[in-house]
Amino acid sequence: MNNKPKIGVYVCHCGINISKTVDVEAVTEFASHLPYVEVARNYSYMCSDPGQLLIKEDIKNQGLNRIVVASCSPRMHELTFRKALAEVGLNPYYLEMANLREHCSWVHQDREEATIKAKKLVAAAAAKARLLEPLVENEVDVEPATLIIGGGIAGIQAALDIASAGFKVYMVEKTPSVGGKMSQLDKTFPTLDCSACILTPKMVDVASHPNIELMTYSQVEEVSGYVGNFEVKVRKKARYVDVNKCTGCGLCAEECRLHNRIPSEFDMGMGKRSAIYIPFPQAVPAKYTIDPERCLFLTRGKCGKGPKCIDACLPGAINFEQEDEIVEFKVGSVIVATGYDLFDPSRKPEYGYNDYPNVLTAMELERLVSASGPTGGEILLGRGKGEEPYIPKEIAFIQCVGSRDASCGNEYCSRVCCMYTAKLAHLMTEKIPDANVRVYYMDVRAFGKGFEEFYDRVRREGVHYIRGNPSEVFKRGDKLVVKAEDTLTATPLEDEVDMVVLAVGLEPRKDAREIMDLLRLSQSGDRFFLEAHPKLAPVDTATDGVYLAGCAQGPKDIPDTVAQAKGAASSALILLSSGKVKVQAQISSVDESTCRGCGFCVEICPYGAVDLVTVNRMGHQVQVARVNEAVCKGCGACVAGCLSGSIQQRSFKDEQILPQIAVLGGMR
Amino acid sequence: MSEQFKPNIVAFLCNWCTYAGADLAGTSRMQYPANVHIIRVMCTGRINPLFVVNAFQQGADGVIISGCHPGDCHYMEGNFYARRRFTMLREMLEYVGVEPERFHMSWVSASEGAKWKDVVEEAVESAQKVGPFDQFRRNKINW
Amino acid sequence: MVDLEKLRTVAKETVSRDDVKYLIGWRQGTYGFRVSPHFMKEPEEAEKLIFSPLCSNNLATYLTSVEKLPVPRGEEPDTRKVALMVKGCDSRAVVQQIVEQGIKREDVIIIGCPCDGIVDLNKVKEKFPNVLELVQARWNNGNVVFQLPEGEKEVPREEVLADKCLTCRYPNPVEADVMLWEEVKTRGSDEYADIKEMEVKDVQEKKSYWQDKFSTCIRCYSCRNVCPMCYCEDCILDRLNPNWIFRSVNATENMAFHLTRAFHLAGRCIECGECERVCPVDIPLMKLNRKLYKETREIFDYEPGLDLESKPLLASYRPDDQEDFIL
Question: What number is the ipTM of this complex?
Answer without folding.
Answer: 0.95
